[in-house]
Each structure stands twice: as C-alpha cells, then as structure tokens.
Amino acid sequence: MNHKQVTRRHLFKTAGVVALSGAALQLGMGASALAQKDPTTADLEIRIGEFYFQVAGKDKNAPIELEAGKELLIKFVNEGSILHEAHFGRTADLATRRYQEELMPGFLGLHLAPQQQASVHLLVPSDRKGEWEIGCLITGHYEAGQKTKLVIK
C-alpha cells in the first residue's frame, strides 16, 4: 500500500465519520454515541452483489432484523463486479431513485465500487420501528430484485 492510498483511505474514513456525526446530530443523537463503539469490530456484515444483499448464514435478500435503540457498526462489502448502493427507507421512487420516506433523514446512502467496503456506525432509531427496506437504487438494480426487508424491532 503506498502513501497516496493510505492518505485517500484516511480522507474517506474521516469524511465518513464527519458525515455520520452530522447525521447523528441531526437525528438527535449525541456525538458521544459514535465515540463509544470499537471501530474495528462489526456487529453485522452485509454483503452486496449482483443483485442482492446478504448476511452470513442467511439467503440472499432474506429479511434483516435490527434492534431499535441499539448502537451498531455495520460493515458493507461489495463482492460484486459493478457499482452498488445501499439506501434505507420505505416506498422506492424509481423516477427520482430515492425512497419517499428515509429511515435516517439526511443519510445519503452508500455507493460502493466493486470489491470496496465501508462501515456505517449508527444508533438504530428507536422511533422508527417497523418494516423498512435496504435497496440499491441504481437504474436496473432495484428492478432486478436488489432490495431486502429491514425490520426494526
């Protein structure tokens, strides 16, 4: 790994932390919630590929359950050969490529190049219990079935 790659990785990690901190504050979470989680150990890993989301030990696009009010580090890994996204919401609007209702307003989602990975550190909103969805809203991906039910309990 050369110096340029390390610098770019550090820049993206820093930008991600800043963006997530801003989203956390916008959602009414204290910044201290983000500082308490060990950033090296993921609580959940979600693999992304053509055209699925998958948690280890479960079928592709099987429902994913999260506990409301729980702090989680979720690692996303694009094991596919093309760009994929992960957005969280309800009622996909394919004309605008957004959800009509976002699980975390202000969170723009993840965009992962092939073989890229990223971690999202969040406090699962306790006031958002119910059925949601994780979807890839790239043209053609959602339509090909790249979505899965997300249940906040």
Automatic annotation (TrEMBL):
PROSITE patterns according to UniProt: TAT (PS51318)
SUPFAM superfamilies, per database record: Cupredoxins
Entry-linked InterPro entries: Cupredoxin, TAT_signal
Keywords per UniProt: Signal
Keyword check for Phosphoprotein: no
UniProt signal peptide: 1-35
Protein name per UniProt: Blue (type 1) copper domain-containing protein
